[in-house]
Specification:
- The chain is of the alpha/beta class and about 450 residues long.
- The chain has three domains: about 110 residues, Probable tRNA modification gtpase trme, domain 1 (Gyrase A, domain 2), CATH 3.30.1360.120; about 130 residues, Up-down Bundle (Four Helix Bundle (Hemerythrin (Met), subunit A)), CATH 1.20.120; about 160 residues, P-loop containing nucleotide triphosphate hydrolases (Rossmann fold), CATH 3.40.50.
- About 45% of the residues lie in helices and about 15% in strands.
- Strand 9 and strand 10 form a beta hairpin.
- Helix 6 packs antiparallel against helix 14 and helix 7 runs antiparallel to helix 13.
- It is flat, with a radius of gyration of 30 Å.
- The relative contact order is 0.12.
- Bound molecules: guanosine-5'-diphosphate and magnesium ion.
- Magnesium ion binds next to helix 9.
Amino acid sequence: MTDTIVALATPSGEGGIAIVRLSGTRAISIADSLFRAPRRLADAPTHTLLYGRLALNDSAASPGSGVFDEVLVSVMRAPRSYTREDVVEINCHGGIRLADEVIRACVSLGARRAERGEFTERAFLNGRLDLAQAEAVLDLVKARTKDALSAAYYELNGGLSARINALRDRLTASLARIETGLEFDEEDLGVGDPRAESAALREILSEISALVGTYARGRLIAEGASVAIIGPPNVGKSSLLNAILGEDRAIVSHIPGTTRDLVEGEADLDGVRVRFVDTAGLRETGDAVEREGTKRAGRAASAADVVLLVCDGSGEIPWDLTPVSGRNAIIVINKMDKARNEVLSVLSASAGSTPVFRVSALSGEGLDTLCRGIRDALCADAPEPKTGGVIIRARHADALSAAGSHLERALDEATGQTRSELVAADIRLALDALGSITGETTPEDIIRRIFSEFCVGK
Ligand SMILES: Nc1nc2c(ncn2[C@@H]2O[C@H](COP(=O)(O)OP(=O)(O)O)[C@@H](O)[C@H]2O)c(=O)[nH]1
Ligand SMILES: [Mg+2]
């Protein structure tokens, strides 16, 4: 007997339909109490959809006095449902108040409003999904690009879990061999000598490291990246932001110092989501607000994955690039539509090894090439793995890193003259770290925290 939970499964707002979902032992009987149709839900076979009316605010004193919505109700019986419990989904008209009335009616009949992610949590607790797959449900919902979807599906279909489980199996086998040795006489080397496991452990460690290494790519795919646009006033930073976004986001003007706060916008660069941040021009100024803007520009630049240093190809005095070339910088020479050769040659000469792109925010010239260059710079540090999927969650990357560290220690001890017990203990810690990814060894508070990131009704 589980308590029965209820929540709106569709986004809250006005829409074509709203779906209220119930899960638990009493899901069908609660829905039946509201359902008015020739057939009862209790008699419906699993995975059927029934048409009828739903009685809301209907008082026992004067039956028929309430509101009746026209609904379609689906019945999915345990264990063939999302949660593995009895699930009922009520498809009603998509109104905020209406859906809320349906939920209230269910609550008055004994259902409890679901916590965030509680449906998926039940799917996990009932063994339908492991923890990594449950997390994938959220990653799927959050995915904004095709690559992010693929990565979430890899996780949801158990691709990551299978790899973790295979690593655990191999580690468990090594551990068993070492522990067998522990039962023998200390002198009796050979059986269970941890040194004999070094090669196997080293191989497992290198696979773990490879998997951790995919996180850079996964993070880029799932979370996107940020690019700061910096440079002197009036070189066309705001124009460049607008041109890349294809919309009029930041104010453009010939008056220097127009942009004072950070202006942001997001673009999809061939599957990579990039948040562009336009900043106040960097210059000495007596204006307190502009000085604060300049400070924010500096912070945005240091937080960004790539910095675009914009200069004016038509300008009088080329900007000195020396202090800014370096970490993931790209030089953008703007206003190519009226560029002056002597300015270009000075700028190019001072660029050093920093990549240079020539564009015109006004005409759009060179923008596609620049966007490809930005994408390449972002992907350079995040190579696509040759085989398998990528890790998209920091939690998984951290757990794998922890497993790797325990294994490194186990290896050090195995090659040294340390006692087998210590090697075995470190292998067990590595196993626990791996198991926390799929949920076998994850503490309860962490599990709840994971599901609290979900929305209510998922
Ligand atoms: N000719 C030309 N003018 C530009 C170009 N980009 C920006 N401008 C002009 O340069 C001035 C400053 O632009 P803005 O985007 O506000 O520069 P910011 O101060 O760096 O943000 C405006 O008058 C723009 O119209 C360009 O590619 N070509
Ligand atoms: Mg500006």
